[in-house]
Write a structure and sequence with these properties.
Layout lengths: L1 E4 L5 E4 L2 H13 L25 H6 L11 E7 L5 H17 L3 E7 L4 H14 L3 E5 L7 H9 L3 E5 L9 E5 L1 H15 L4 E7 L5 H14 L4 E8 L4 H14 L7 E4 L2 H13 L7 E6 L2 H8 L5 E4 L4 H12 L7 E4 L2 E4 L3 H4 L6
Parallel strand pairs: 2-4, 3-4, 3-5, 5-6, 6-7, 7-13, 8-9, 8-10, 10-11, 11-12
Antiparallel strand pairs: 1-2, 12-14
Helix pairs in contact: 1-3, 3-11, 4-5, 6-7, 8-9
Amino acid sequence: MHALRNNRGSRLVLAAAIGSIALMTAGCTSSGSAESTSENEAVGDELAPSIYCGEECQEQLALEADPASIDCSVGVSWSSASFPYGAKSTQQIPEFAEAFFPGMDITVSDGQGDSTVQSGQVDDMIAQGIDVLIISPQDAAALAGAVDRATAAGIQVIAADRAVDTEMSTYIGSDNVEAGIVSGEAIVADFPDGASVVELAGSLGASPTIDRGDGFRQALEGSNVEIIATQTANYDRAEGLQVMEDFLQRYGSGEIDAVFTHNDQMSFGAIQAIKEAGREGEIKVYGIDGESGALDLVQAGEYAATVGYPLVVKESVIAAAKLCAGEPIDERIVLDSTLINADNVEEYTGRAPQ
């Protein structure tokens, strides 16, 4: 394990440094429009949650302590930095902490998409004596044991973006079920007479995959929209391209009306496959996340809609500060899920959820 220390004391710990750096690079460039930092909400100039943290969310994260008094060690365990969401989160969390909590020491690890690797990294952080763990698990069940060990060691645990199948101090993130519902309702509204839909699902076992899929199916109940095929593409653009190519070979012209993906990266791959097949005029693509590149495609008329699933960078760090200060925190903190389509995309240009 290799540590890089900056002049403010925060640490970026990279397990298997060379491999992790390569993964980070892949995450930042896997989409032509995905950057390692968001265009609008990276750090900012004030200590406050993001614009996607509504009134209740802001009240839940109100910090009573003086930020300068926060003195603690926080471990950040992310499932993978090879995807834009993880790449941005693992970069921006230390940056936000440095800007507003100079006494907060941050250690970040990249689980490389492997639950065993991530679990071992959490154990290393426990041994280091961290006070708070921020974790976005690769698998909700597989990381439960590591979280239980952290809790047993007296460490407060924040689940960020993804839940863990065990008790924790708080879980911060948009409602993945709601995100699926919003996307499903958009398809039902756009196809009142019914449609045949193929689904590109996220990583098997990940809580967003389960919840987004469940929410989407709830929205389709009672409609004439039918899911004719579903296949995992692991939240990856290249896999989304391959899976969509397979669907296009399996289903001829007129047999697919819409595509639902669990994230924008898979949508980018699906859109590419549809273009290369010359079928963009007959198939609409819907997804979740709200990356800046996704908003560009919505504006260009190439992407029907994306549901904003904002980063939880600021919220996670502020929650960690509250726990370090001994302040109470609610078990669930929800950020907004917003449908972004041709009707309102201009309102979010320059302040994308991701």
